[in-house]
Design goal:
By secondary structure, this protein is an all-alpha fold. It has helices at residues 5-10, 19-29, 49-60, 73-87, 102-130, 149-158. It is flat and about 70 Å long.
């Protein structure tokens, strides 16, 4: 397989993605007091007994499924009570949400936005393709495509 010239130009020791990680591992093994945060590392120490017990109890009680999108009601109620106590303002648990992560929050609250953006992009792409702008050639006038339209689409959707 032949790679693009750009591959040779950007390769080298200074761009090795794992270089920092491996150097940090060597320093850690040498006894240096550093925090290794390059990848999710497992600790050599055991999990606290309370954490293990809670995990086992959750498994035994079939609490190993996805939580509700807006969070577990017990946790939301506890947060509402704590907020009310700290701020002196009544807070209802229905006003509290606890998302499992950013993706969950986005899907729950902004999926309409993504659908709208995709629709705008698709309409714009077709509008450009079907007007005179769709005839613009990228490259010199005498240039020929390196790949057929079928190959180009295959590479586009395979990536």
């Amino acid at each position: 397989m032949q790679y693009a010239d750009l591959t040779d130009r950007i390769s080298g020791e200074s761009v090795d993605t794992w270089d920092v990680h491996y150097r940090a591992m060597r320093r850690l093994e040498a006894g240096d007091d550093i925090y290794l945060m390059s990848v999710g590392q497992e600790s050599d120490s055991s999990s606290p007994a309370g954490v293990v017990d809670a995990a086992v109890e959750s498994l035994r009680n079939a609490r190993h499924h996805y939580t509700a999108v807006d969070g577990e009601s017990g946790l939301r109620e506890a947060i509402a009570r704590r907020h009310s106590k700290l701020c002196g303002a009544a807070v209802d648990a229905d006003c509290v949400v606890v998302f499992a992560g950013a993706q969950n929050a986005i899907v729950a609250n902004a999926s309409w936005y993504y659908v709208l953006v995709v629709a705008i992009i698709l309409v714009s792409t077709f509008a450009i393709a079907l007007t005179r702008f769709g005839e613009i050639k990228l490259g010199p006038d005498h240039a020929q495509p390196d790949y057929s339209l079928f190959s180009w689409f295959a590479m586009l959707f395979a990536a």
